[in-house]
Amino acid sequence: MSLPILSRPTADPPTSALPPVPQSRHTRKSPVQRPSKLKTPSRPSVSPSNQGVSSTPELPTLKTTQNVRSLSTPQTVRKAVSIGQFPQPPPPHAISRPPSAASIASPTFSRKRVSEASRLSTPGTPKLKISPRHSDGSNLYRMSDTPSLLNAGISSSAVPLVDNKRASDGLSSVPSPPQSRSSSANGSYSTSATTFEEGDEDRGRCKDVSEELLGPKGVRGKEHKGNVTVSVRVRPDSNGHDSETAEGEWMVDGRRSLIAYRGKEGGDYHYDNVFGTYDDNAKVYDSAAKRLVRRVMEGYHGTVFAYGMTGTGKTFSMQGITSSPGVIPLAITDIFSYIRETAQREFLLRVSYLEIYNEKINDLLATPANGSSAPQEEIKLREDSRRGVYATPLKEEIVQSPTQLLRVIHRGDMARRTGSTQWNARSSRSHAVVQIVVESRERVPSGNSQESKRVAMLPSGVRVSTLSLIDLAGSERAADDRERQKEGAHINKSLLTLGTVISRLSASKDKNGAPIDKDGKHLPYRDSKLTRLLQGALSGSSLVSILCTIQIGASGSSTAATTHTMETLNTLKFAARAKNNIVSHAKKAVEEVGSGVNAGLLERYRSEIANLRSQLEHQKKSADAKEEKTEEVQMEREAAHRHEEQMLEMQLARTALKERIEHLNRLILCSKSTGVNSGMTSALGMHGRLSTGTVGDHGPPRSVKSPASHSTLGTLGPTVSRHPSMASIGAPPTFSPAADADEDEDPSDLGDGMASLQAQNRALQADLQDKNRYIATLEKRLLQARRSSHSRTSLGFSRMVQEEDDVQKHLEEKDAVIADLQKTVTVLRSAVRQRSNADMTPESSFSEFRSKKDIRILLDGEASEPVRPASPPESIGAPLTGATPLSLLSAQKSGDKKRKSVDEMSKMLDEMIQDKVESGHLVKGKSGSVRVPPRSTSTQRQHSRRASNDHAGPMPPLNTTISTIRERDFVQERVPATLPAKSLR
Ligand SMILES: Nc1ncnc2c1ncn2[C@@H]1O[C@H](COP(=O)(O)OP(=O)(O)OP(=O)(O)O)[C@@H](O)[C@H]1O
């Protein structure tokens, strides 16, 4: 009989979300025996065929009255597994508890189970016999009612039978009645622990049964045994026909969890669960692993492993197929259901997946996805007191959803070593270990307030538990293939070591605490990586569920059949030893507080989150402070910038003013150098002399102004001070009489008035150009100042605007001056033209001067009053009344025409100077010199104007300067530079 050719799941993980996880777990009932078409063996109705059991003729071996339909062909049983096609979790109203008897009694449930059974059973399946209880009690023992974490809360009440009789024909896994554990003399085994159906009274209750059991009222003496569950699953025959021998030799009673072999070395084997060929993976999971998974979620360590001969259905049971997912996917679904149901705790899940292949550990999750064959870092097993034995370095992935977890495991499955053997087309060549680490922590129920939310995050102890789901490689006979032989040798060796360890397990320990066997020898955990890795579970630190798979009724040659039977018996013995010897004293993991190396990731993440939060807050604070500082600095900078701008503008304005002043000064010097200033000075000197000397020479002096002004003029003295210029401010130099004399006595001046005028004209033109250039410069600066003033927001803005206005005013005044000068130039030009006629009558001269005077008046806009007639020159200082310039000029007809006209002009100048003195633009010194009044406040200026004293002051204000310039310009205009100094005297 050949074994079926099977294939491993190849489908990709699902992309769609898993179905919703149930919110309640109180409605799904415990799995109980399902109704079957097979007849339930009953003690009274002993089948006659039982007589044929040779090995134990005395035992009535009951045959099922109806043959179990053989399972569908195994070739099609193992289809590609698609995670998306895993069974949907029960709806919210359903619970994950096994169906109760009550639910079984319902027609719907019965129909479903019946149809499942009929689907799985195929004609040809070995007829399984149900062994009744031994009548003599020698080979069959009742299992003791030992409550445990894995059957916690289960009462020993009998399961109600459908229609008052066992619905199962023995293929169901309804636990047997309590029996005491013992082994029969002829090799029959039974286990002390048993699983019990939950009584109706427990259904719907969600109580912490472990607490109940571990509490003072718990059966402490027996609980440890109860923490180990051993189940045996019988795989359907692969080819559909069964041997009569096998049929006669084997009896499987699922209801009583019994497998009996009536052949050589036969006996009855009792376990916690016996699954028949019709039991599907859901049933296996519910009975053998579900409770353990729940306990792991509560904080216990748990290990589920499948053990058995190659091809007997270990991988099938652990991974499952599309239509019947196995223990691993169902556990994953359950884990997440539990998390959803447990609102009072928060969880963190991480998963790792390794294989032990040829005594080497490979990380199945670390395999590069792109297929690159980079050598993996060697994974070693280490041990510490807290974690026990563990593999490192191992990749762990944190998962947040069932889909994600299934995908990770699927990835590992794909990386696992498999190969074709004579017995299994896709045989697992390695032991595969999925480890799901569950970290959980109590959550303080959070209210709506921010405070309570914060409190909810307060750190509490983190509990870390591990669920190990192990699919062992199958024991096998020597294969033909070399590689398979080598693999098989390693597999067999490790399984042998496992068996040895289990067989020698005892509660004894040496003085160092190392486990020893009954003979005081050390247990050979280190002989294989598998036993080393399972050390914690085997030595009792975790809950254990062992699922042993067998196949009975193997076809083939009689030798093969014998070998097969021997292997099956070995598996059964292994299972029995495991149940008898493994003592679990699993305890709930202690909640660890703190964020040290030993703390779970959950705590580390929490503390990291808290750290990051505080860092964030700190950074935010410092950022705020920085921002504030930056703002301050920015404001300071802006203020400084504004200040700079203001300073710049002020500087510009000051520079402009200074330049203007310098320029004007230059002009004055320039005029001097070209004779203009000297002419003016000469004129003034002339005027001085005119005021004093001319009185004697030409009769009483006449003033063209008021008597007051005349008297003022009289104080000018014999030497007229030089016209004040910027250079003369503060210490106005006066021309010494000698210098004056030198200048005045220059005969060329007298003889070449025309040339002087032309020179003056040139100088004025140059001056005009200078001024134009200067205006352009000022305009440019003004433009710059305006531009920068746009950006001003400082407090000094208004002040600057004010200053700018002042500057503007000054500029306007300067413009007016320039206009004056231009006009003056025009007038001078015309004067030059007139002089060129050389025929100048006093009248014409007077009219010319008069017109100039008018022009001046017009330009200055100040002296609007008409020129008054000159005063009679009786005395110096006396008011000149009754004389007009015309009369004056007429009286001197006898003199040189030019001299006369000069006198006229002198008079006119005198008059103008007097005007200026009166208006405060000029002050007269005691000696009769004329100066610009000192710089002073407006009040002082007014006072100065009134007092007309000779106080010399500091630099005059700009207005004064401008006025002075105007005066000077006017004087220049009026007094030709070529006027002979002598004549002025
Ligand atoms: N209970 C079962 N019902 C139907 N088919 C099954 C059952 N058990 C196993 N099979 C089928 O038997 C074949 C072998 O199963 P599986 O690969 O799970 O055996 P195994 O014990 O894991 O073998 P190995 O140790 O060589 O890996 C598969 O095709 C599988 O589909």
TrEMBL record:
<protein>
    <recommendedName>
        <fullName>Kinesin-like protein</fullName>
    </recommendedName>
</protein>
<keyword id="KW-0067">ATP-binding</keyword>
<feature type="domain" description="Kinesin motor">
    <location>
        <begin position="227"/>
        <end position="581"/>
    </location>
</feature>
<keyword id="KW-0505">Motor protein</keyword>
<keyword id="KW-0547">Nucleotide-binding</keyword>
<feature type="region of interest" description="Disordered">
    <location>
        <begin position="680"/>
        <end position="754"/>
    </location>
</feature>
<feature type="region of interest" description="Disordered">
    <location>
        <begin position="862"/>
        <end position="882"/>
    </location>
</feature>
<dbReference type="InterPro" id="IPR036961">
    <property type="entry name" value="Kinesin_motor_dom_sf"/>
</dbReference>
<feature type="coiled-coil region">
    <location>
        <begin position="602"/>
        <end position="660"/>
    </location>
</feature>
<dbReference type="InterPro" id="IPR001752">
    <property type="entry name" value="Kinesin_motor_dom"/>
</dbReference>
<feature type="region of interest" description="Disordered">
    <location>
        <begin position="1"/>
        <end position="144"/>
    </location>
</feature>
<feature type="binding site">
    <location>
        <begin position="308"/>
        <end position="315"/>
    </location>
    <ligand>
        <name>ATP</name>
    </ligand>
</feature>
<feature type="compositionally biased region" description="Low complexity">
    <location>
        <begin position="94"/>
        <end position="107"/>
    </location>
</feature>
<feature type="compositionally biased region" description="Low complexity">
    <location>
        <begin position="179"/>
        <end position="192"/>
    </location>
</feature>
<dbReference type="InterPro" id="IPR027417">
    <property type="entry name" value="P-loop_NTPase"/>
</dbReference>
<feature type="coiled-coil region">
    <location>
        <begin position="754"/>
        <end position="781"/>
    </location>
</feature>
<feature type="compositionally biased region" description="Polar residues">
    <location>
        <begin position="42"/>
        <end position="76"/>
    </location>
</feature>
<dbReference type="InterPro" id="IPR019821">
    <property type="entry name" value="Kinesin_motor_CS"/>
</dbReference>
<feature type="compositionally biased region" description="Acidic residues">
    <location>
        <begin position="740"/>
        <end position="749"/>
    </location>
</feature>
<comment type="similarity">
    <text>Belongs to the TRAFAC class myosin-kinesin ATPase superfamily. Kinesin family.</text>
</comment>
<keyword id="KW-0493">Microtubule</keyword>
<feature type="region of interest" description="Disordered">
    <location>
        <begin position="917"/>
        <end position="985"/>
    </location>
</feature>
<dbReference type="InterPro" id="IPR027640">
    <property type="entry name" value="Kinesin-like_fam"/>
</dbReference>
<feature type="region of interest" description="Disordered">
    <location>
        <begin position="166"/>
        <end position="205"/>
    </location>
</feature>
<keyword id="KW-0175">Coiled coil</keyword>
<dbReference type="Pfam" id="PF00225">
    <property type="entry name" value="Kinesin"/>
</dbReference>
